[in-house]
Amino acid sequence: MKRHDKLADTLPVGTLGILALESSHDMGKRVNDYIVDWRKDRAAQNATASTFAGYNRDSFLIDSACPRFGSGEAKGIINESVRGDDLYLLVDVCNYSLTYTVCGHTNHMSPDDHYQDLKRIIAAVGGKARRITVIMPFLYESRQHRRSARESLDCAMALHELTQMGVESIITFDAHDPRVQNAIPLNSFETVQPTYQFIKALLKNVPDLKVDADHLMVISPDEGAMGRAVYYANVLGIDMGMFYKRRDYSRIVDGRNPIIAHEFLGSDLQGKDVIIVDDMISSGESMIDVATQLKQRKANRIFVAAT
């Protein structure tokens, strides 16, 4: 039996509901449109699917909002019933374009603001849903995923908090460190890897790219991305190299130890195209510095891919 046929014959957990927070409004609409069309096609091909209550609907989006008071405080509101629904909550904690007003001052929403809104909506569900899944493309506080000194474990604490509020599954993309799922070993945690999308986009947009050890090399911009770079090198059958950040641990600038230099470990780069892969670009400083160092080593074209 084909996978799609098995899906059509499987009893749904509950009526599908998509709660797209304001940060993911456009993404939620695109996901909803795709599912509406897909389910109509499946129902037309498989009579069993069309018998499930709520399987075919014009929209699976559920009306919700997080209005704010003049003090900047907020509340979560769901404007329709979600009793027995299989809910999927979409939130983009890195959407800095959204603003709110506090005492006449305009504030841009931070990841903390988006995360609080997510918890408000979960609280508004009030335990009435059959299942809650959170889709968070960028995992909240994923950069603070481990303790190396006397410091907080923010990502682990956030995952604990969500599961304790009733979230059964968390889906993210290319988590900064997938081992953070050890914080919630009895719950589902999915980190979707974009390896195929990266390679597909590269081959599609650079038709003259020669994928062999003599013409192409993959570079890890720091020691944290080593595993990712090793995987790409093995899949493509090419060499890899890495930079490690030499930092000044005697002082802190803007909340972090400043980088003194990027040291390179790897074979000769002269004349080779280079792919730099990483999971995130924050300020872009590291990528620019690494690209500069690669050009000084006479690398040919430089391609940067980040989730």
Commentary on this structure:
The protein has 307 residues and is an alpha/beta fold. It has two domains: 3-138, Rossmann fold (3-Layer(aba) Sandwich), CATH 3.40.50; 195-306, Rossmann fold. 30% of the residues lie in helices and 23% in strands. The chain starts with a helix and ends with a strand.
Summarize the structure.
The protein is α/β, with parallel strands linked by helices and 307 residues long. The protein has eight helices and 14 strands.
Per DSSP, the total helix count is 8
The average pLDDT is 87
Largest sheet: 5 strands, parallel
Low confidence ranges? none
Beta-strand fraction estimate: 15-25%
Q: In angstroms, what is the radius of gyration?
A: 23 Å
- The CATH class label of the largest domain is Alpha Beta
The CATH architecture name of the largest domain reads 3-Layer(aba) Sandwich
Distance between the termini: 34 Å
